[in-house]
Batch of 2 targets.
Target 1
Amino acid sequence: MASTSEDEALVQVDLTTWSLDQLFGMKHTVEQECAVLKESQQALQDCKEKFVASKEALDAIQPNWENREVLVPLTSSLYVNGRIKDPNNVLLNIGAGYYIEKNLDESKEYLEKRIVYVQEQIEKVKKVRLHKDMFIDAIVGVLEMKKKAASNQS
């Protein structure tokens, strides 16, 4: 018997009643799902790292930085000189090409909330991956059992 979790509902599946083709098919399907989950987890991790880097940059800003010269990135490899007009206010990219202006403390709070939220999503994906990995292990166990039983019969 193997269990899988989907939206917190527990489903019992008796894998021993499945044919080899069904087991191989399910194993392949779940492995594909795991690959997608791994990619999603990495994308979330990358997102979290950007939020952390942004928060660290905000933590470095000093109140006396008014008119301080900085390099402003236009692309990942192209910068122009700029000056900080108001070190207490920043524009935050909130996605889909939208920006909001917030003071330094509100910006740090916003980023901290995003970091916590993304970490929660990472943990959820990890949990689902763990359940799917356990399901794959159960399928492999039944496949090995069936192969052994078939070789004992011949």
Note: Residues 92 and 110 are 9 Å apart (CA to CA).
Target 2
Amino acid sequence: MQAWGTVVVTLMLIVATVDAKIYERCDLAMKLEKAGLNGFQGYSIGDWLCIAHYESGFDTAFMNHNPDGSSDYGIFQLNSAWWCDNGVTPTKNLCHMECRDLLNRHILDDILCIKKVVSSQNGMNAWGSWIQYCYGHDLSEWLKGCNMNAKPDMERMTS
């Protein structure tokens, strides 16, 4: 029965990736700003771009299988044990969504979910890549050349 469930999930993921997108940095920055992420919980668009780059290379169809049996989905690599339901991994499903919905070009549902993640106790620390590559670094480079209102939070970077 487990093998049949895996086949069904795999087929659903193949269908979902047909509508995938690899975002250009500035296009993603503008979409995140429009969705209200600049300053959300004290984090800048630079923080979000840095995470998306190191987690998925801005690829909405990116998927990663973890040693614990869970999987990470989408541009922000949301984990199936905590944030979404992939039909295979036991899950808390705190975003009340199917993981396959994180694999398409329509990232509003991803954004609603990452708002829950960053509002949780761990904040951006939920992403190991943020701790390793983004925290305490100059994130202004992520917005260079993007024609938008968002500016890096210099006070938070230097404190």
Note: Confidence is low (pLDDT under 50) at residues 154-159.
